# Entry
Amino acid sequence: MEEKFLKVIEMFKEKTKKDCYKISIEEGEPSILDDKIGGKPYLPIGEEYPKDKNGEPLALLLQVNLKNIDLEGYPKKGILEIYTDKDVDYPCQYAIKYFEDGLEYQTNLPNVDLSHYIVKNSLKINLTKDVCYMSINDYRFPKIMCDIVNKIYETSLNNYGDLDDYFGEFAWYDKLNDGYINHPITLGGYPDFTQRDPRFDMNENKDECLFKLDSWGGFKTFSIGDSGILFVLISKKDIENSSFENGIVDWDCC
# Structure
C-alpha cells in the first residue's frame, strides 16, 4: 500500500500544482512604496483612507506592487493593498484597494493602533515565485483525491469517509501531508483553513486565493486568533478585470 500511495501523492501534486509567490520577511524599514506587511500605505492624493463601520481607520495588512509579479491572469502593474480592522474582529471588516503606481501620494496618514493587530510593526517583504498544491481542507479535495485513488487502487470511493474506511489504519492523511509543504504566506496559489472551507456555503465562485497568511507556519511575528489562517478569496474573472475590491477577506482559527 505504501508504494502505491507514493504514486497517489505524485499524481495529486501534478494535478493540483499551481504557481504562486511565497512571501518572506526582509531586513530594513519599509518605505511607503515598498512591498510590505503592515505600515503606512501608498495612498494617491484624493483617495480616502479606508475605514471600518465605526469610521475608524483600517490597518494595512499587505501592500504589493504587481509589476514584481508574474502570475497568469494578474495585471502587470498597479499596487494591490489589503486592509482589515485593527482588532481583527470576526467577521472580518476589510477593504481591498488597487491603485495605479507612480502617482503623487499622501504622507499625512492616520496612526493606527496595532496593539491588538496581526502584526505590531511594518515589515518589508520579498516575493519569490514558487509552486504550491491544494490543501486537504479545500472543498475540491475529496473529489480529486478519490478520483486518483480510484484510478491507482481500482476502487470506487466518493468522499472523506470512504477514504478513511478504505485505508483503515494506514494514515493516508498524514502520508499526504508529509508529501509536500506549502509556504505559510503566499500571493496566489491555494488557501488553507483550520475549519470548514467557507466556499461550501457560497453562491458565487471564489476559487482563487489572492493572499494567504498562516500564523502557525513558523513565523512568531504574526498572531491571528488561536494559530489562525487569514485568506482572501476571489474569482479568476475579477483578477483578470483588476476588480480586486470584489475579493472576500476572512480568517479562522483552531
Notes: Strands lie at 18-25, 36-37, 59-65, 79-84, 94-99, 123-132, 185-188, 208-214, 229-234, 248-252.
